[in-house]
Amino acid sequence: MSQPVIVARDLVKRYGDFAAVDGISFEVAPGESFGLLGPNGAGKSTTMRMVGAVSTRTAGDLAILGLDPDRFGPEIRSQLGVVPQADNLDTELRVRENLLVYGRYFGLPRKLVAERADELLAFAQLEDKGKAKVDSLSGGMKRRLTIARALVNDPRVLLLDEPTTGLDPQARHILWDRLFRLKEQGTTLLLTTHYMDEAEQLCDRLVVVDKGKIMAEGTPAALIRRYSSREVLEVRFGSDRNADVADQLAGIGDRLEVLPDRILVYSENGEAELERITSAGLHPLTSLVRRSSLEDVFLRLTGRSLIE
Amino acid sequence: MSEVRRSGSAAEGDAHRDPSATDAAPAVTRAALAAGRNPRRWGAWYVAEHRFRVMRSYTGTVVVAGIGSPLLYLYALGVGLATIVDGSVGAESVDGVSYLVFVAPALLASAAITVASEEFTYPIMLGYKWNPTFSGMHAAPIRPQQIADGVVLSVAVRMLVNTVLFFALMLVFGAVPSATGFLAVAVAVLTGLAFGAVLMAYTSTLEEDTGQLAMVMRFVVLPMTLFSGTFFPLTVLPLWLQPIGWISPLWHGTELARVFTYGYPEPIWLTVVHVAYLVAMFAVGWVWARRIAVRRLRK
Amino acid sequence: MSDVTHRDLAPASLPLRPARSLYAGNARAVMFRGWRATRSTNWLVMVSGFFEPIFYLLAMGIGLGTLVGDVTTESGQVVPYAAFIAPALLAVAAMNGAIYDSTWNVFFKMQFARLYEGMLSTSLGPLDVALGEILLALLRGALYAVGFQLVMQALGLNLSWWALLALPAVLLIAFGFASLGMAITSYMKTFQQMDWINFVMLPMFLFSATFYPITVYPQWLQVVIQALPLWHGVELVRGLTTGAVDWGMLWHVLYYAVMIAVGLVFTTKRLRALFLD
Q1: Which range of residues forms the domain containing residue C269?
Q2: Which of B26, B38, B53 sits opposite A107 (nearest CB)?
Q3: Is C44 on the interface with B (CB under 8 A)?
Q4: How many structural domains does chain C have?
Q5: What pLDDT does residue C16 have?
Q6: How confident is the model at residue A34 (pLDDT cuts 50, 70, 90)?
Q7: Do B194 and B290 share a domain, yes or no?
Q8: Containing domain of residue B145, as a range?
Q9: Chains C/A: 3 or more C-beta pairs closer than 8 A?
Q10: Global pTM?
Q11: Where is coiled-coil annotated (chain B) (predicted)?
């Protein structure tokens, strides 16, 4: 019954010899919120552009709403809302005009667009900014306006490329709240992010992408369960000593990750591991016990940190 | 994961191999096919609508420049300069007409070139790069070719407004003796578009403006304006400089406009060449600009 | 937050040493920055500026000159058409260069690059910035002018040794336009307002005895033209290159001296109001 909205199979995008996307497969069901998680340059944005029917794939199969984007670009895009990584709001027009003009690109009647523009300004909490210049908006407001603009055609699928990158914490939370509402209303979301907390907040299911390939797939909780432990103990012995101490820590915890500035000890019980370390006569400068996150999943899968 | 993938490929196969079999296609697919119809047909017009809205923000400039600069040029050259030209070579010795009548159609065509060099440079750079509204349009159901078409369409309209105003002032100055003079407006628009389409294509290829557009203004637009038989007949120049005029759309446009405004005597084949040259240049530039739009937006 | 900073800064420096806060005697630093920026962006564009008046000279002087023949100047001298317009084009080039550098360029730096804010947070004062920008524009203008005069010489359009003085005259003209242009720009807020500068430049360019003597106009229009700065520049340079020199030309010099002073006073005042008060 619920046929997938997006089906990608062995999707490839090459620029010359470089494979930006190297055989990615995934599916997104209606109403699902699906994330592509990975560092910069992993091929997330390229994938988004192909799904958005603005970039031609090199190989593989892709169907959006049952249509091939190479042949049915305009038809597919009429059903999508796109929030690109960099805002491309029209700075020559005012805030409300941006919505009016954008709605016309979908061939919607002027009257309908005008009604929606007012609703969407309210949704984006920009009611009193309708006549303002785009450049006078803050970063968070611009993002909300971009999202409002993406909703002007009442899309079935919303594509969000790094929706909160560059925003301050408060602006991010406001944005997440808005996206959560859309999710509750049944809009299908496809988003890329390199923020763990964002993926955990918004995604029902996600794939971890690195170097154009999928490393893992699942719900955030399942991924953490599969690739990490319940808790993580972070200890610091000072930049010079971390590597030396690491040898002496052998056998502590399920697994160790030695980073330049700290050592991560993966374990079911972080406090217990800390006690074992101190009783062995090692005294870290600082220590912290936290729950495992997707960051740890990524580190485990790729051996690299997500935010570099 | 593998399980999901298998079930998906079956479902996908049916839908996407034969999506236009609308009876079998699911409702979402049919909705998409229906919603794509308007943008496919009218996309270029929606883009033009956008351009008009932007132009509205500088209506003041367009109107003042549209009336002010023809007034200034016609008075300074057609009256001021004409006094010493006519005083020197006699009142009817440039092509057998007064200097005002001689220079006016050239100024008209130049005005269209000026509009082209404004609208097909920085706004194009803006749309592709500085404020990438073109990618925004393309993310909506507009095709890249339609973006190029829409821009051309909107500029053609602005050019028409400007040249009609200009022509009206020419009438006021008494610079149009011939009854077919109004055709010069169409000639001017064609001239502006012929040059403009090529300019638009060139601007579209620029990833960054490190002064190329300023160079175009200095080494293409300005010499073209000066050496295209505009302020003096091309034949006054030494023979080796005259080819500048032959390749210049402004020369073809100006000569053609002169045929209509004062019956400038030239063989009919030459008139045909003027029209053919301008149309060909426009077509080449337009097709080129559309191709670059596709290449650039669908990377 | 920024209010606090301003309040701390202003009373401490301004009333005590007013001159110092305006001018630190370091306009060179501003010029140096501008020179580096020009070099690193596109020097070809800068060089190309030299060709603009040349194109005009060739087209109008030689092409149109065959139609016009000789022209009688203000002083009653009969000269070939090319020798008539060449000095005018020199003055126009000085105006255009100076106006471009002091308006669009300065506007962009003020509104978008926020360059002056950074400069004024160092020991530089507003007058350093204004002078530095203007002097750099003059340097550029001087290069163009020398080039153009060499072309004039080659074409035999310098009719007198007085033409040597045309170079300082051109600098004076450029200084006048640059300082006035910068003063006006410092009051502008949008690109649309900037467009109006062109609306003033175009008629000045067309009417100020550039392409033909203003005697073709009715009396009232002549008076208007004579009140505008470009006409004074054209007459000054033309007097020198054609060798029709007299004491009356000092009025033109005075006109520009006043223009420079007025421009500098307003620019400094405005920059101070914008960034320091």
Answers
A1: 17-276
A2: B38
A3: yes
A4: 1
A5: 42
A6: very high
A7: yes
A8: 44-297
A9: no
A10: 0.86
A11: none
